[in-house]
TrEMBL record:
<protein>
    <submittedName>
        <fullName>Lipid kinase, YegS/Rv2252/BmrU family</fullName>
    </submittedName>
</protein>
<dbReference type="GO" id="GO:0005886">
    <property type="term" value="C:plasma membrane"/>
</dbReference>
<comment type="similarity">
    <text>Belongs to the diacylglycerol/lipid kinase family.</text>
</comment>
<keyword id="KW-0594">Phospholipid biosynthesis</keyword>
<dbReference type="InterPro" id="IPR045540">
    <property type="entry name" value="YegS/DAGK_C"/>
</dbReference>
<feature type="domain" description="DAGKc">
    <location>
        <begin position="19"/>
        <end position="149"/>
    </location>
</feature>
<keyword id="KW-0547">Nucleotide-binding</keyword>
<dbReference type="Pfam" id="PF19279">
    <property type="entry name" value="YegS_C"/>
</dbReference>
<feature type="region of interest" description="Disordered">
    <location>
        <begin position="1"/>
        <end position="21"/>
    </location>
</feature>
<dbReference type="InterPro" id="IPR016064">
    <property type="entry name" value="NAD/diacylglycerol_kinase_sf"/>
</dbReference>
<dbReference type="GO" id="GO:0016301">
    <property type="term" value="F:kinase activity"/>
</dbReference>
<keyword id="KW-1208">Phospholipid metabolism</keyword>
<dbReference type="GO" id="GO:0005524">
    <property type="term" value="F:ATP binding"/>
</dbReference>
<feature type="compositionally biased region" description="Polar residues">
    <location>
        <begin position="1"/>
        <end position="15"/>
    </location>
</feature>
<dbReference type="Pfam" id="PF00781">
    <property type="entry name" value="DAGK_cat"/>
</dbReference>
<keyword id="KW-0444">Lipid biosynthesis</keyword>
<dbReference type="InterPro" id="IPR050187">
    <property type="entry name" value="Lipid_Phosphate_FormReg"/>
</dbReference>
Length: 332
């Protein structure tokens, strides 16, 4: 007769990953000024949580983050921390999208728009690293963009554009950004207000092309910029949709109408600012215009094709309820 011990199965114990096997990679843009010892902070917090020594990689002028991220993936790290501005974050995210490896943010730039949208304190490097190592994980959308019908696509996480906004990014002085921060963009914006609209053709989700005379066409993956201004009302990082905004000031006071509609979150019938939501979009200009992705000026071009890849990037962020203007499910 079998004993009770023989007939009962052994209790199943759920095993958790050993913290000692975990490792973070820090991809640092060395030209970004900071008074903090970033390497020391990441090392200290990694060891405090029982993780291995972090992998340190620096970006360069020739490689702003792509190759370094590929090295981090080959090393099998658990999270890749992008330490720099929105441009560094974009390059790292371009390689991490679709891999399942988490992106952490250590904002060191001027705009730091993705970090601001995700409630990551841009003035607290230690807190940002703590969120990257032990925060909650969320999946967000990534937008792929083919410029001038190139075979290879870029990605962006916050916003991209053709025309006025890209001219502002291209014309912003780096020395002024170091002195006055995001106000340097205001300076460039004022200097680029004069100008003529371009003839632009826009197609939404493969629909009929619409032709307008515009100063700018922008695509947004999330809505907020510096100062909490929501320029893409309704945009969410994980809604599977791209938000398109067209800007067409008319007359000498046209820019006042643009600002008024932005402040009104797009409400009203004034055609100076118009919005569309879609999964794909195609923009073509009859004349070359400046192009930017997440603040990186790419030079002039005439064609942009946008495509949303829903929930394709895993991001670490602080625990806590999120602004519902940013995520469709604001609970942590």
């Amino acid at each position: 007769m079998a004993s009770l011990q023989d007939t009962e199965s052994e209790p199943q114990v759920e095993t958790q990953p050993d913290a000692r096997t975990r490792r973070a990679a820090l991809i640092l843009n060395p030209v970004k000024p900071t008074e903090e010892d970033i390497r020391a902070i990441v090392t200290e917090l990694s060891l405090e949580q029982g993780w291995q020594e972090p992998l340190f990689l620096e970006t360069s002028k020739d490689d702003p983050g792509h190759g370094q991220t590929q090295k981090a993936l080959k090393a099998g790290v658990d999270v890749v921390i992008a330490a720099g501005g929105d441009g560094t974050v974009r390059c790292v995210a371009e390689e991490l999208a679709g891999t399942g490896t988490a992106l952490g943010l250590l904002p060191l730039g001027t705009g730091n728009l993705l970090a601001r949208n995700l409630d990551i304190d841009v003035d607290d490097p230690r807190g940002a690293v703590e969120a990257a190592l032990g925060g909650t994980e969320r999946l967000i959308d990534v937008v792929h963009v083919n410029v001038d019908r190139a075979q290879d696509a870029h990605v962006f996480l916050v916003m991209a554009g053709l025309g006025f906004d890209a001219s502002v990014m291209a014309d912003t002085r780096d020395d002024l950004k170091d002195k006055v921060g995001w106000l340097a963009y205001v300076d460039a914006g004022i200097r680029n207000l004069p100008g003529k609209p371009a003839k632009v053709h826009l197609s939404i989700d493969g629909g009929k092309r619409v032709t307008r005379r515009l100063r700018s066409v922008m695509g947004g993956n999330c809505g907020k910029i510096m100062g909490g201004l929501e320029i893409f009302p309704g945009a969410r990082l994980n809604d599977g949709l791209l938000d398109i905004m067209t800007i067409a000031p008319s007359g000498k006071l046209g820019w006042f109408a643009v600002v008024a509609k932005l402040l009104a979150r797009g409400k009203g019938k004034d055609p100076s600012v118009e919005y569309y939501q879609c999964k794909t979009a195609e923009v073509e200009s009859d004349t070359p215009l400046e192009i930017e992705l997440d603040g990186d000026a790419l030079g002039e071009g005439t064609h942009m094709a946008f495509r949303v890849e829903p929930n394709s990037l895993k991001v670490r962020m602080p625990y806590g309820r999120k602004d519902p203007a940013i995520l469709t499910d604001p609970e942590p």
